[in-house]
Amino acid sequence: xxxxxxxxxxxxxxxxxxxxxxxxxxxxxxxxxxxxxxxxxxxxxxxxxxxxxxxxxxxxxxxxxxxxxxxxxxxxxxxxxxxxxxxxxxxxxxxxxxxxxxxxxxxxxxxxxxxxxxxxxxxxxxxxxxxxxxxxxxxxxxxxxxxxxxxxxxxxxxxxxxxxxxxxxxxxxxxxxxxxxxxxxxxxxxxxxxxxxxxxxxxxxxxxxxxxxxxxxxxxxxxxxxxxxxxxxxxxxxxxxxxxxxxxxxxxxxxxxxxxxxxxxxxxxxxxxxxxxxxxxxxxxxxxxxxxxxxxxxxxxxxxxxxxxxxxxxxxxxxxxxxxxxxxxxxxxxxxxxxxxxxxxxxxxxxxxxxxxxxxxxxxxxxxxxxxxxxxxxxxxxxxxxxxxxxxxxxxxxxxxxxxxxxxxxxxxxxxxxxxxxxxxxxxxxxxxxxxxxxxxxxxxxxxxxxxxxxxxxxxxxxxxxxxxxxxxxxxxxxxxxxxxxxxxxxxxxxxxxxxxxxxxxxxxxxxxxxxxxxxxxx
Amino acid sequence: xxxxxxxxxxxxxxxxxxxxxxxxxxxxxxxxxxxxxxxxxxxxxxxxxxxxxxxxxxxxxxxxxxxxxxxxxxxxxxxxxxxxxxxxxxxxxxxxxxxxxxx
Amino acid sequence: xxxxxxxxxxxxxxxxxxxxxxxxxxxxxxxxxxxxxxxxxxxxxxxxxxxxxxxxxxxxxxxxxxxxxxxxxxxxxxxxxxxxxxxxxxxxxxxxxxxxxxxxxxxxxxxxxxxxxxxxxxxxxxxxxxxxxxxxxxxxxxxxxxxxxxxxxxxxxxxxxxxxxxxxxxxxxxxxxxxxxxxxxxxxxxxxxxxxxxxxxxxxxxxxxxxxxxxxxxxxxxxxxxxxxxxxxxxxxxxxxxxxxxxxxxxxxxxxxxxxxxxxxxxxxxxxxxxxxxxxxxxxxxxxxxxxxxxxxxxxxxxxxxxxxxxxxxxxxxxxxxxxxxxxxxxxxxxxxxxxxxxxxxxxxxxxxxxxxxxxxxxxxxxxxxxxxxxxxxxxxxxxxxxxxxxxxxxxxxxxxxxxxxxxxxxxxxxxxxxxxxxxxxxxxxxxxxxxxxxxxxxxxxxxxxxxxxxxxxxxxxxxxxxxxxxxxxxxxxxxxxxxxxxxxxxxxxxxxxxxxxxxxxxxxxxxxxxxxxxxxxxxxxxxxxxxxxxxxxxxxxxxxxxxxxxxxxxxxxxxxxxxxxxxxxxxxxxxxxxxxxxxxxxxxxxxxxxxxxxxxxxxxxxxxxxxxxxxxxxxxxxxxxxxxxxxxxxxxxxxxxxxxxxxxxxxxxxxx
Lengths: 523, 103, 657
Hints:
The complex is a heterotrimer of chains A (523), B (103) and C (657). Chain A has 523 residues and is mainly α. In chain A, 72% of the residues lie in helices and 3% in strands. In chain A, strands 1-2 form a two-stranded antiparallel sheet. Chain A is globular and about 75 Å long. In chain C, helix 16 packs antiparallel against helix 17. Chain C is globular, with a radius of gyration of 31 Å. The N and C termini of chain C lie far apart (110 Å). Chains in contact: A-C, B-C.
């Protein structure tokens, strides 16, 4: 499967997607302090441009093509085979789009309380890093971008976060870096071992995947090296404890982006670098990941129930939701893996919106403690209604986006991982439990004096919320266009797993389409 | 009958000088004295180099001596400068007093 | 004509969207009329679809209308499609009609409420979801409607959300339903894995031709039963329904009597081939769950003092009858009872609503009495409802309950006995209710100046004092509220025509109309009871049933009107056999502590490992740095020792010298 060139697009859109926010970040950093309104303008222009480009990318994407599209390839360090190699396929397309649109919305939704210039510069740098991670097809460049993402996030949390921000930022940074250290070793080892096979040194993902053969045990070690880094990022139980602190202490835009796209670096990495590079190892270790995923679903939900801080509750809910995605990824059926990809997008939308709401609550009431909030629906019904829709999406009510991914994951996983799925499905009960209980404590009931003057949803906030709500409803009612684009790449991935292992994707046991029985054929 | 001075004696002398220097370095506290002991050790090494160069017939030993002398000289310049400026601030300071760089 | 079946959900959805945008502008009562109009429009479409299907041959009464591809992925191709067949059309007819009447009633009932439009917003959304549930061509569309009604139920129960009890009740309903949904979802996964499709046609066909293994069919059936038990409030998941009475009474009437709670029974009827293809213990389980729930709830109902709680437990009990019918293969009987129950239960609830409205929001029956003089229409219609539910011939409930009991006896005598005992209790507690509310002395005057709550029996909750005191006089409700009552009363009286048996000289071409209509849908699963003792001795069964009603009603009359026997309302019954409180206690104490333990475990042990690592590194670094003493002589000494060791290694081990 060589990288496919699509059309005669001369414009290097993928490179532009990375460079636009990066240049924006530099421009903002260099702007003079004398004009305080400029940084916001530049940030908006650049991030909206990135969003527009990503939407154009989605529109021009070839639906039935399973390979990489819009490929951009420039050699960099020839001696080691490092190149600027970008490409997008069904797995990364929607993550790129999500990254594109989430950032301008996050920028508009909440203002920085101080030092806006630096705040926006870091945000845009973060966007560039995330884009690069999703688009890189060169192992070295991927690692660079993966690490680049850490620095702006650290500064955002430490500089603009809440009470325990420095602790949370440091913990996040060191913990993620700890995982990445393993990945670095694994990466270099992969390249070296592959070089023996191929004959020359290259960091190119597609070349290594297609042409290098890893012995089973070698592949497993290498896989785990990569997997540890991604397991920290997703996060998979028990490597998840950085997440509650990081999410809670991060400023609103930081949380939105962290939950929306940065966690998906982990799930994306598992697919792109775990399963794609090491299909045998990922299949061989699947029981471990399935088990950890299911534990994460239940454990995250239970822990979420007992949280006293609203933001921390949402953070733990992310652990639970990402558990579903990991479950789907390692069940290796078309439905479950595609469900995992679409759920990555859906979770980004719903949980991003949830964090926006929590951030707005904090702006108004200066507290995130559930015990101090009550009766908000009475004084701010529109706010409550918006929160309700987003909450129901997170719970996984059919008709909204959260259900589609969850259902696909579970229905797909059931065929290959039956009892894990049975346990994981109880997660739907628990999700309702912690979310509705939190909603009741915060929104239902009579508001006390502190909460009586809670302002209603502002126009600006409502406008930011509209795309989220629109996506929540649209992706729930008509997910077909998204699924159609994800499926070919996932099917190619599964074929790769089937080719390298004894696994065969199960078919249903009865095939009535070709049955000759004279049942009623409805028109 | 005059005994021939064996190269071994030089080596022994060098060893003796080195030992005195080492011992002095470890025992004495006055920075200047410690410095002199270091010089003594360096010169003992020089002597060893020369003796062995003669014994083995290899000129490289003598070139090594040049290197050592140059380095010793440079080191003395810098080291003495540091010690003198420290002693000017803290007259009567010993090596044990100068422990600011502890972990 | 049947192609227009998609309009049935479309009208209430349009109503929802219109009210969403224009609701506040329309206000009270226009928003209500809009909503009502939409629901009746759905009814009209249902009628036209019905006639379309009626005009066809029996085995062609099926139309599938596909709107678009919903979740297409590989071998899973699920469309948003509607299936218009006898069962779904029958459901649509009574759902939309009764929903329309309740909408009308609600215009009067909710008049003056600040959130009038919002109420109808949710009601229309509910009708939309219910029609989706019923018209779904596959399990997933049904599930979409299933969860939709669950969500609307949550929103409507907690409608007066500033009341903590209402908010809690709404949350409880949703979460308990979710437990059932877990079962439903697993059933869907199994079905897909076995058949490769979620369409009813595919699944049922697989079951009918024997392509579905009995174990798989049983698993699917049991899991769907779990879902049904949650949605239809049977043991052990009924606990949300009594609390759901916190919602406004039209909600109780619509959702918790006539429509949503019947969803579980509908689902099981829809997949009757699967139940037929499973092991024998599966339908037996269904039947027994239904029977025991019916009896259990009836015992609780006779000790309740809140007018709505009696009806709530009564609903649980009556749905138990429907489950019993399903489990004994009497699907037609189940649907028949569902229709009659919808009519008379909605009537009873709306009547209760009318009473509450007329009593200024008083709900405690101990503070009512003699209301027939002040609210004649309400009383009259309520009495019709009473006669129907008790099973007095020729009212509808008699015919449907008789069918259910017929199938019960054909299956097992014990089931029949449970059914009859429940029938006695039903007559008893309904008579009790009618007497306490409409007959006897007017107790709201004697408690007039008493602001304290009446003496509370042990274990009961104290009653909230309401506004029924002082110079108060109950009043009849406005026309907009009693017209639906009258219509429903007519239905409750006459709905028996749907499925009268060949008794009492009724000609065979007007009997069993419903069975004839539903035949193509349930023929595979319907039990054949011709030739059983029960079937041959129908007149005896009728006699026993009438006797049971008479006994129950007479007992009620003697205890509560003539006061000749002391009332027996043990606190065990009044407190629901302590089942609900046990669950609440468990969730609040060991449950909560368990959850807290997990959260603490995460904060201390899992996170502790991380912080522990950091502490370990810090401590080690602290120890190691002590080696840097700053003493030059020590450093020199260490260098010296190092040199010696190095030399020693070279000399001794490497053999230099």
